[in-house]
Known about the structure:
Chain A contains 12 helices and 19 strands. In chain A, strand 5 and strand 6 form a beta hairpin. Chain A folds into 4 domains: 9-86 and 408-421, Uridine Diphospho-n-acetylenolpyruvylglucosamine Reductase, domain 2 (2-Layer Sandwich); 91-208, Uridine Diphospho-n-acetylenolpyruvylglucosamine Reductase, domain 3; 210-301, Alpha-Beta Plaits (2-Layer Sandwich), CATH 3.30.70.2190; 305-389, 2-Layer Sandwich (Alpha-Beta Plaits). Helices cover 29% and strands 27% of the residues of chain A. The chains are: A alpha+beta, B alpha+beta. Chains A and B meet through strand 9, helix 6, helix 8, strand 19 and helix 12 of A and strand 9, helix 7, helix 8, helix 10 and helix 16 of B.
Amino acid sequence: MSEEVAPGTIDGLRAVVADGVRLLDPPERTGGSRLLARVEPSSGEELAECLGVFARCREPVLVTGAGTQLDLGNPARGVSVALSCRRLRGIVELDAADGVVQVSAGTPLAELDREVEAQGWLLPLDPPNRGGTVGGALATATCGPRQRGFGPVRDAVLGMDTVMASGARTRCGARVVKNVTGYDLAKLYVGSLGTLAVMEKVWLRLKPIPASIRVLEVDPLDAQEAFGLAVAAGRRGSARAVALVGPEPGTQEKNSDPWRLVAEFAGEAAATDADANWLAAGRPAKAGSEASIEAVRVLQGERRPMGLKARMHLLPGALAAACVHLQAYGARVLAYPEPGVVHASFEPRGESTPDWLPGVLGRLEEISVAGGGQWVVEALPEEARADWDVFPGASGLALMRSIKERFDPDAILNPGRFAGRI
Amino acid sequence: MSEPPLTFSGSPAILIERLIAVVGEDHCLSRPEELFTYGCDGLTLDAHRPSVVVLPKSSQEVAAAVAICRELGCPFVPRGAGTGLSGGATPLFGAVVICCSRMGEILEIDAENRIAVVQPGVVNAHLSRAVADLGLFYAPDPSSQQACTIGGNVAENSGGPHTLKYGTTTNHVLAVEMVLPDASTVRLGSPTGFSPGYDLVGAVVGSEGTLGIVTEITVRLMAIPEAVETILAIFDDVPSACRLVGGIIRSGMVPAALEVVDQRTIRAVEASVYAAGLPTEAGAVLIIELDGAACEMEGQLARIRALAENEGVRDLRIAENAEERTLFWRARKGAFGAMGRLAPDLYVHDAVVPRASLPEVLEEICAIGDRYSLKLSNVFHAGDGNLHPNISFDRRDPDELARVLAAGREMLELCVRVGGVLTGEHGVGTEKRDYMGMLFSPDDLDAMRRLRDAFNPDGLCNPGKLIPTTRACMESNPKARGYDEVPLE
């Protein structure tokens, strides 16, 4: 880790954004990095000029939004300066007739949610942490319980204005809802943890506000019934969120029916009623609310300092066996059967991290392979972050490195954060 | 940055001999009359003679063919059924055409997990047919779906009428196996739809065969909806139909399809084998398709009826059964074929505009057609704002051809001016490569070039497409070289 900032960097940044450079004394520990300074540009021009300074000085930079999801990914390598995009804020254009919005990347999600809903539309982004920015939600591509209804994060993005590591301002995509004009670079940028370019503003596709929402909670269920029912519920036409919540580790012996299903149906009233009635038929279901979904989201976002969190992507047919194994191995399990995502949390039981962690990671790999799935680690004990790549088994790493080398040849943007420590 | 290579200047005899050793004599085409067929795709205004055409049967044969091309320094071009409309499969620089049409097997159907694994030469419509008995279908449905291949659809990120609700090919491809330009084979993505790292599948879909050759595709299948309603809304003019589209979008309904057919198209269709009883005196027909749960249909139909009446609809016809629905869609999807009745040639344009601007843009596009004295018709995916102004013409008339190209450029400039883009589903290829500057700055294009070079550093894979370069512009230009001008010798 560098102990000081490359000569000329701070002066260069001050020349660009005098009121937006702050020296950190004592240094700040954030996301595994020891930061000596923070810069916050307030416009696209300033963002580009700041990146020009980093490029000229060959100073690597930790790019962040609100800084709420820095646990994700590997720690950045050798960064002493953070660049926060949170002053790039506000809606540029909201076209209520077309259902699209252009927004600056640092805009808080909650603020955009409100503005969009006031115009009769819905923002189809659902990260577990609602306190972040739009750019952060796209860079991490994390999704909460509503992925079934909203689709993957990348599907919400129509176009992007970005600044490259060189400081060049570029654009891809557009405001229209269908487009094959050139390479779809936005697909690469979404989920890239800011390692290829820095988002300045984005065009997003909105969804209609549903006329009717029905939330149901069903419990208790044994594992076999729970997974069959959850997959079927997730395939109902109006399903927007279907979550299966496992018990706290160690409690299942006391309760033979430990699983709880939370389902949200959204759309035309006729469809949501039909789907809710189907789920409730002959089962101990009770009506839920937005709070039920929020509770699931909070559970997904929960972080225990000494714990490990993993996200597994599995085929629906492999979910039940994988979740039962995970639970038997001591994990707290939260599963979204459509599209086949399992969040598993582990905590050490008195063992030290070096003794405990390799076994858990090995077991996760076994379970993932057995289920034909893929997985990533979403949180590790701080002390272990430097030693373990949180993107195990990434395929196409040589291509990824080749892309990174061409987009960011001097490894300025979030070096080391991504798969293979790219 | 790499420039596309110069025209292959090695020994054709050695190239052919080496390729025959890989695919066999029957699947290596080198006679002039054989090569003629592969000189272009559906963009017949820009044809070039390939060095040789190979038809591999497996991923290993594709990799071996690519290795030979690389070793001998010969560019190569992947091809599916050749139904593309932007020149993506056109062999510039004397390229070898690697045609995947023999790789036509459906390798796996997994109904429980709703996925299928296919070779790239599987015809789009065949997959939906193969899984229909399981209650499933493959959603992307380009008009050419009876002929086009899924490999070609991946290259072009093809859409179709039902992309309004179901998205384009990129939303349905979970994983690919591909042969990279260095002849290595990689698997990208996973059947779960997630893979740690950059979204390389997202980058490959729609890359127009410039990043490698896809040799196996894992796709998502969808459940056939419980109920479908297909409605013909008949209007006096196109802008009224477009206003209804805007009203439906604003209402929050998401129909499966919203397709506009104008009067000239209706008349061509009704005079053809695709006739569906569309009213030939109508100014426009809007095909509205709703799908979903049966209980939703009645309410949505009532809302559509009310919105249509507000826009002065002349008549609403609802398909009474599956046969009638098929007839409506046959008319829509056969529209391009029916245009053959109007003139020897058809230029199918493709651009997208914000949906709210459709009425004004359509009027202006018609005015451009009139100004250039062209036979213009419109049949388009109105729900996506995806226009297809079609110009019927005779390429043997140089003056008319010049007017077709000039009008096309003006139409694209108009679409870009209102916030639109150059292509919604046909791709850039050679057709729009030199227009990319209308939409993108040099820095924007440089970022695209960086992605291409990460996969295809020496530029041998499908050179001269998508990104403008001086050399590519000299090699290929739609007005410079027509299909019928490709020398046989």
